[in-house]
Specification:
globular; two-stranded parallel sheet; 4% strand; mainly alpha; 48% helix
């Protein structure tokens, strides 16, 4: 499953939980500046990603690898997740509430 597909799979539940209009949320997500990156672009970070996740869910290494690739390019990023395993990586992480607060101007980075 692609990252885009996984995000879209969770959007209806997020909208219900946050009492958001799905008809508004989907166009907002579509308007965000996001680059969907093919996993083949960052395998060189696999070993480092696995070190960051040691003892955690190592199946999440592609997400950490992408973050490390973006960091190496000095791009601004945050990992959007509810998964607490990412807190140990030392990389910027936003949960859904923080992301929505950021989008609504209540949270600055």
């Amino acid at each position: 499953m692609s990252a885009a597909d996984e995000v879209l799979r969770h959007v209806p539940a997020i909208a219900r939980k946050r009492r958001l209009d799905l008809g508004v949320l989907l166009p907002v997500l579509a308007a965000l500046t996001m680059e969907w990156v093919d996993p083949e672009r960052y395998p060189s970070h696999e070993a480092e990603s696995l070190r960051h996740l040691k003892g955690r869910d190592e199946d999440d290494w592609p997400v950490v690898a992408l973050a490390l690739e973006l960091k190496s390019q000095q791009k601004s990023f945050a990992i959007w997740t509810q998964d607490k395993d990412f807190a140990v990586t030392g990389l910027p992480v936003l949960n859904t509430g923080q992301l929505l607060d950021y989008l609504e101007g209540r949270l600055t980075r």
